[in-house]
Amino acid sequence: MSTTDSTHGTDAHDAPDSPGYPTFPPGFAFGTATAAYQIEGAHDVGGRGPSIWDTYCRTPGKVADGATGDVACDHYHRYREDVALLRELGVDDYRFSIAWPRVQPTGSGPANAEGLAFYDRLLDELLAAGIRPAATLYHWDLPQALEDQGGWRVRETAERFAEYAAIVADRLGDRIPRWITLNEPFCAAFVGYAIGRHAPGAREGRGALAAAHHLLVGHGLAVRALRAAGRSEVGITLNPDRLLPASDSAADLAAVRRAETLHNAVWFDPLFAGRYPEHERETWGELADGSYRADGDLDLIGAPLDFLGVNYYRPITIAAAPHREADPARRTAVDIGVEETWRDDVRHTTMGWPVVPESFTDLLVDLDRRHPNLPPLYITENGSAEADTVAEDGQVHDADRVAYLRDHLAALAEAVRAGVDVRGYYVWSLLDNFEWAFGYDKRFGIVRVDYDTQRRLPKDSYRWYQGLIRDHRRRHGQRPQDVSGTPDQRQD
Description:
The protein is of the alpha/beta class. The chain has a single domain (29-476), classed as TIM Barrel (Alpha-Beta Barrel), CATH 3.20.20. 37% of the residues lie in helices and 13% in strands. An eight-stranded parallel barrel has the order 1-2-3-4-5-7-10-11, surrounded by four helices. Strands 6-8-9 form a three-stranded mixed sheet. A hairpin with a 4-residue loop joins strand 12 (447-450) and strand 13. Helix 7 (155-172) runs parallel beside helix 9 (206-228). The longest helix is centred in the middle third of the chain and has 23 residues, at 206-228.
């Protein structure tokens, strides 16, 4: 018997609190997104090796309630019913990530045939359902063996990443039209190697800056490998932050400049402007000595891309603040003399993040104007964690998430009307899942997962999104389930 309860008698256009849907141009792609460690489970099945997240989760006090991704949503065994949910939802695309330690258990050497076979099965299931796969090569699950050898602090990890990319492209490339090298390298480098709130849990200065650079080098090498394998739609996903000064004082404006370097310029300048950040010395002082850089790195990192993935959730308010560590030699890479806070005059999600849809428009318009060389954009993550409960009628009436999606998609539509070239939008996330250091306390899914039974239950937000997709197709003369072909082929 299926554990999925995907029908509850509510037509997509009768979902609660669903006013007129935002409108998008013909060919605009709708999808959802997930990540391997957050949903797959099967941590010791099929030859998969341990990742830094397996290790981190087993470090006492690091993850809420001592949770792990050992089982997560058991997607490894239940992928067929998850693809069935995607098909019923009507999405064009499904963004997922490939687990490096499932393909190369130690991060190097020959491919693990059983691990690749899982992705063979998943891809065939997606294509049979008329859904285009969009694969992320790295969503933070570095093989532990590579971390033991220095992790992203050392260039060798970038070189191993390129070898892994070539293996995946060779085996799976015929069925994956869209490739994302890295997801949110900010989190991998700075939350993982400087804040210590993500794996591997380090608190470093130069090591974190080296990790940031080597992630970009790994991206460039992976792009080269994917191009060599004939892959024609290649990009990267960043999480640029909308950073707002707490006041117009000179100190706060200078703090914003440093925060822009940390959050945004360290990625955008090498990728799209052919330079390292202008204010890196002001931001990091002697830590920014560039000792981890090599001649030719900028050319490698800045190779042309076909798209940029953008993840957005909330804006941040920035104020000047004393350094937490007075000794520059002992500062981490995130101790840059700023205080980051959230707006307190709006609703907050259960992550504590403020809900400010207009900031989404502002961010995209600002990116478009500030970086004239950007390729077309895809919104590769956007969504909200809410206090979902199963109601007496057995359903999840997540009105706050419906409102969040409605308002943020309206803000996205406004950015498109302002001239920003956005080609698609992926909800985060299809499923409730393992939410990193928060364990299973935060639910982002448009499908509820009962972690005891693994039963899937579509929420009202699922039905609302389903209605949006159907409405979009009707507007442009498409059949409700016409999800085949490329975006251009699906235009009027």
